Amino acid sequence: MSASDWRCPPVADTAPAPPVRTAGLLGAGVIGGGWAARLLLAGIDVRLYDPSPSAAEAAQVTVERARRAWGRLTLAPLPAEGTLTLVDSVEAAVAGADLIQESAPEREALKVGLLAQASRAAPPDAIIATSTSGLLPTRLAAEIDGPERFLVGHPFNPVYLLPLVEIVGGDRTAPEAIARAADIYRALAMKPLVVRREVDGFIADRLLEALWREALWLIADDVATVEEVDDAIRFGAGLRWSAMGTFLTYRLAGGDAGMRHFMAQFGPALQLPWTHLMDVPALDERLLDKIVAQSDAQAGDRSIAELERIRDDCLIAVMRGLAGAGYGAGEVLALTERDLYERAGGEDARLALPDGRLALHEVLVPPEWIDYNGHMTEYRYLEVLADTTDAFLRRIGILGPYIDTGRSYYTVESHLRHLGEAHAGDRVRVATRLLGHDEKRLHLFHELLTGDDLETPIATGEHMLLHVDRTAGKTAPAAPVVLSELEAIAESQRDLPWPEAAGCSIGPARPSRVSA
Ligand SMILES: NC(=O)c1ccc[n+]([C@@H]2O[C@H](COP(=O)([O-])OP(=O)(O)OC[C@H]3O[C@@H](n4cnc5c(N)ncnc54)[C@H](O)[C@@H]3O)[C@@H](O)[C@H]2O)c1
User: In the predicted model, is pLDDT for residue 301 greater than 60?
Assistant: First the structure.
C-alpha cells in the first residue's frame, strides 16, 4: 500500500467468494484501465490484454489513481487487492475468466472480430460484455460463440469511481445473463441500469449528446465560450443532477402542484425555437480551432493528471455528501460500506495488542485533516474515535441484521483529551479498552497512538454508550449474544490496570497568576 492510500490496511481473506474471481479485460485505455482498477480493488484478479506497448504502464497509473481515490472515498476495509497480470493474447486474457469486459476502440468491425475471437476461447459460462458507448449489441454479437451470454456493460469515466453501468442485451442475449451481469456489477459497488430496449446510444449518451450538441452550437454562434458553457452547468443544474436527475428536479420546480403543473407551465416552451435539436454545427477547422483554444485557456497550466485528481476529489466529495444523505450515488456508496464493514466485521476485531487491548482501527492522516496549526484538527480525532467505536460495535455483533431489528447503541457521553500531535502522513492506531458494561451500558476507553512504534499516545477518548430499542424509543437490555461477546472481551482485559485518565473531567478554570 502506498503512502497516498489513506485507509485501513486491507483485511485479507475475509470476503465471501465474490461472484467473479477472475476477469479478462480486452483493451487497457481510459476505460479498460478504469475497469482494471475497479476490479482489482474489489479483490478480483485481472488478466489484461492490449496490443499497445504503452497500455500496461497507463493502466498501472490508473490503478494507482484509483487506490488514492478509494482511500479517500471510504475508510471501510477493502478486500485484499486482486492480482493484475498482463498477457500477450486475447486467448490468454479470457482463459478461466468469469467476466470478460471488452474496451477496445469504438469501431464496429474491430469489436465484432475481437469479441468473436474472445468467445471461442472463453469458458462457456463466462459473461462477455462490451464497454461500447452506443453500438448495438445485436450487431456486435454477429460472430460470437454463445451470444446468449453477451451484452453491453457501458460504464462512465472514471470507471473506478462512477457507479453507473448501462446493461443492454441484444436479440439473442439471455435474460439470465442480464440478471447475472447486474449482480456482478452490483458486487463491484456499481449501479446497473438495464436498458429496456436496444437503441443507439442507450440512455445516458443520448442525453449527454443532446446537451453537447447544443453546447457546440452556443460556441459556434459565439453565444458563449467553453468555460461559460461549463459554468452554466457546474454552478447550477449539474449540482442538482447528481442528486435528482431531470424529472425529480422538474417535479420540484412545479411546486406543490407537481409534474402536471410543471408540464403545463414549461411544456409550451418546447415549441419555441430555443434549441437546434438534430442540427449539428459544421465541425470545420475554424470551429475546432476556437474550441481547442478556449479549452486550452480554460485548463490553464493544469495538466491532465492534475485535472483528473481535481475531478476525482470533487466526485468523492459529492459521493460522500450523498452518502450522508443516503441519496442517489450516495446510497450505493453507503450500501457498499455497510457490506465492506460486515465482511470484515468478525476479522478486524480479532486483532489485539499483546497486553489485551483491542486494535480495531488504523488510519494514515491525510493532508486535508491538518488545520492552520499544522496538525490534525480536533473533529478528526472525534471521527477516528467514532470509527473505532463503530468497529468495536461490529466486533460485538452490532451489524446490519441486528440494527435492522431496531436495536443499537447510542453514545451518551464522550471525553476527549489531547496529549500530542498528529501530522499529515502519520499512521495512527487506536487501542481500545472495555472499562465496564452491564445489560444496557458500555464504557469504552480509546487511546490514539502514533510514532514509529505506534506506542506514543496523542489522545484518549472515553465514551459511555447505552443500548437502545429504537422502536420503543428507550433503553433496553442488549441481546445475550452481544453480552457474551462483551464478557469475553472483559475477561481478556481483566488484568489491565485502570487507565490513569479514565473518569477524569475538565476541572474549573483557575484564575491565572498575574505577576506584580
Ligand atoms: N472514454 C470514455 O469516456 C468512454 C466511456 C464509456 C465507454 N467508452 C467505450 O469504451 C471503449 C474504449 O474506449 P477508451 O476511451 O478506453 O479508448 P482508448 O483509445 O483510450 O483505449 C482503447 C484501447 O484499446 C486498445 N486496443 C486496440 N485494439 C485492440 C485489440 N484488438 N484488442 C485489445 N485492445 C485493443 C488500444 O491499444 C487502447 O489502449 C470504447 O468502446 C468506448 O466507446 C468510452
Answer: yes
Cα 23 to its chain centre, rounded Å, is: 20
As separate numbers, helices (DSSP H) first and strands (DSSP E) second, the chain gives 16, 14
370 lines ligand 1 (CB under 6 A): no
Q: Are 369 and 424 in contact (CB under 8 A)?
A: yes
Cα of 165 vs centre of ligand 1, distance in Å, is 16
Helix or strand or coil: residue 109? Answer: helix
Q: Is the CB of 497 under 6 A from ligand 1?
A: no
Cα 242 to the center of its chain, rounded Å: 15
Q: How far is CA 15 from the centre of its chain?
A: 17
Any ligand 1 atom below 6 A from CB of 482: no
Show the cell assigned to 501.
485518565
Which of 60, 87, 77 has the alpha carbon at shortest distance from 12? 77
**295: which 3 cell numbers?**
479549452
| Ligand 1 site, residue 352, Cβ cutoff 6 A | no
**Nearest protein Cα to ligand 1, atom 8:** 133
Residues 67-112 pLDDT 10s:
989 988 887 778 999 999 999 999 999 999 999 999 999 999 999 9
C-alpha cell, 97? 475468466
Ligand 1, atom 9, lies closest to the CA of 132
| 404 CB burial (10 A radius; 0-12, 13-18, 19+) | exposed
| Residue 12 pLDDT | 34
For residue 14, the CA-to-ligand 1 centroid distance in Å is: 34
**Residue bearing the CA closest to ligand 1, atom 40:** 106
pLDDT of 385 over the 50 cut: yes
Q: Across-strand partners of 191? A: 164
Provide the β-strand partners of residue 503. Answer: none
Ligand 1: residue whose CA is nearest its atom 20: 29
